[in-house]
Amino acid sequence: MSIFSWLFSKNTEKNSMVRKWIQQEMKKVDIENPDVYALFLGLIQSAVSWGKSDIEGQDDQSLQVSKQYLGDATIFEIAAYTYYRVEIWLDKEQPELAKQIALPIREWIAEKFHTVLYVDERLFNQLFEEQLLRYRSLTSAGKDLAELHLELEQRILLTKGDRFNKQSLTNDSSNAALDSQYIKSSLIKYEEINIPEAIASIQQYCEKHSKKKFEDKKSKGQLVNKNHEQRDYLYGMALLEQQDWVRACNAFTKVLAANPKHYDALIQRGLLYGTLGQYVDALQDFTAAIEVNPNESAAYLHRGKCYHRSLRVKDKSLADYSEAIRLSPNHAAGYFGRGELYDEIALHKEKQALEKNDLPYAHVSEEFLAAIHDYSQVIVLETEHDAAYANRALLYARKARAYQNRDDITNAIADFEKAMSLNWEHGYLYKQQDEMKELLEDSQLEKEA
Question: Is the dihedral of CA 118, 122, 128, 134 positive or negative?
Answer without folding.
Answer: negative
